[in-house]
Amino acid sequence: RWRHGPSPVGQAADPLSDVEFLAPPTPVGDALLAPYRSAGDLYAAVLDPASGQLRRQIYLCGLGSGDVNSFEPLQPCVADGVAYVPTNRGVLLAIDTTTWTIRWASRYPQDLATTPAVVERFPNEQRAFATSIGWRDCPPIATSGLVLLAPADADRLYAFNRVDGRISWIVK
Question: In this model, does residue 2 exceed pLDDT 90?
Answer without folding.
Answer: no
